[in-house]
Specification:
alpha/beta, 4 helices, globular
């Protein structure tokens, strides 16, 4: 993963520190249910370049949560919306695999996990839903699309 994440209050943290913060957050109230979600959003900039933001959200179901985010600036040219959104999904898949490996080593309490993608039934990306959902499910992850994809559509979007 990237060298650092930002906390919701602006602190710079390593991936390992983020993992520890999430595990501590879950252990602080171990009787609650937890959901961890990862989502990426992007913004096309000049000359077919794009900025990507990935968010990791831990939700104490019914009782709030915390989030962390990182930016990947201009990893290459993206000539079409399809290219850019597919890259968002690939970034989220990579982050999910690495992050879940970190949490496993830390013996995190039980939690549900989802990848959120910034596509929905409305808009130009609707023709890609089946393809992108299939990519994520092929990697054995649960997936949510708009309007349920808050990690990508709201949290990551806030920092793009």
């Amino acid at each position: 993963m990237s060298d650092f994440f930002n906390s919701s209050v602006g602190l710079k943290m390593s991936a390992e520190q983020v993992g520890r913060e999430i595990v501590n957050f879950m252990r602080a109230d171990s009787q609650k249910e937890y959901k961890i979600t990862i989502g990426t959003d992007s913004l096309r900039t000049h000359n077919d370049l794009a900025d990507f933001v990935t968010a990791i959200v831990v939700h104490r179901v019914g009782r709030g949560g915390r989030y962390f985010w990182r930016r990947i600036d201009n990893p290459g040219k993206f000539h079409t919306l399809r290219d850019r959104i597919t890259h968002e999904v690939l970034i989220s898949l990579e982050a999910a695999k690495e992050f879940l490996s970190e949490l496993k080593q830390m013996e995190a309490p039980k939690f549900d996990f989802e990848i959120h993608i910034d596509v929905g039934e409305n808009g130009a990306s609707k023709v890609m839903i089946q393809e992108l959902v299939g990519m994520i499910r092929a990697n054995n992850f649960e997936v949510k699309t708009k309007p349920e994809s808050y990690a990508a559509s709201n949290v990551a979007d806030r920092h793009v």
